[in-house]
Amino acid sequence: MSVFKREEVLYPEYLPLNLPHREGQIKLISENLSLLLKNSKPMNIFIYGPPGVGKTAVSKFILREFEQYSGIKNIYINCWQYNTSFAVLSEIGISIGAFVSRRGWAKDEIFSRIVQTMENNRLNLIVVLDEVDQLIKNDPNVLYDLLRIENYTKQKIGLIFISNDKYVFRNVEDRIKSSLNLEDIEFKPYTFLEMKDIVEQRMKEAFVAYEEGVSALVAAKAAERGDVRVALEILLKAGRIAKDKLRVEDVKKVIKEENNPRAQEIMKVLREEEKRILEILDKPRTTKEIFEELKKSIKISRTEFYRVLDEMIKKGLIKVLGKENRSSLLYKAL
Ligand SMILES: Nc1ncnc2c1ncn2[C@@H]1O[C@H](COP(=O)(O)OP(=O)(O)O)[C@@H](O)[C@H]1O
Ligand SMILES: [Mg+2]
What we know:
The protein contains 15 helices and 8 strands. With 334 residues, it is α/β, with parallel strands linked by helices. A hairpin with a 2-residue loop joins strand 7 and strand 8 (327-332).
């Protein structure tokens, strides 16, 4: 039986119903963007902080909240994907229905179509530019272009820039920087206690049953880097090896593996059946037991199975501990 109630809750792209310990930032940004509802110009926001501290999640959370208001259009752009001014403007144009296809337009045409569509539909925009470093490095004109739109229409745009790099605007011209009118918001790494709340909330959504101590252990590990993604990865892996209930033991096993970079490297190049065998060997088992277990998930003949085992012993992945009931007793070597 699986210990998961909803495994997808642990996927990094899942957006939870609330984001503990980011309420303050969410309120600040949302209130500022609410000015758009009155057709006033909000400040543009710059969110910065290290990976895994909720920058993307908070911005998507806010977009989701604003989605219900008519008269505001939300656009989320990841600048790794769209790293020129042209690409960003095209994406904005397509999102608001200014044109259908990305092809064949000159930048000026895209520009005037965007302005026209905003005017005709009385549309205000919220545009999130996530991982903006790439874009600014590649094509700093984009900032000028984005600012210019508002010169041609009464409609307003609220921009949210996101970056790991606090100094991403350092080479931008002063004139543009001051026109951007940025409100900086720092996202600091989560402390242990904050991490524990976040982990517990996700566990409640994700698992059928778990032991008391799990959240503290996972949070402690993730708080070393302040990165929630670490916690989610551990929980997902531990959940996959857990039996009826997620136990502290399962989490310890995962953390032990993560601390062993050599083992991680090796895991990457293994074949499916080899990986499965290593998973089965969470404690010493006889060849017969391994074969019975392996057959449940992988189609393999007995001869082939023994060949794989032999090879794994030669590669130093598993070792022979002795004999039990005339069958070899094996365990992981790593
Ligand atoms: N306060 C929080 N509460 C719940 N989940 C969070 C919180 N902050 C971050 N997360 C989760 O952690 C993961 C990484 O967050 P993300 O926003 O992508 O980080 P960043 O963009 O800062 O690198 C996501 O799955 C996100 O849902
Ligand atoms: Mg992010």
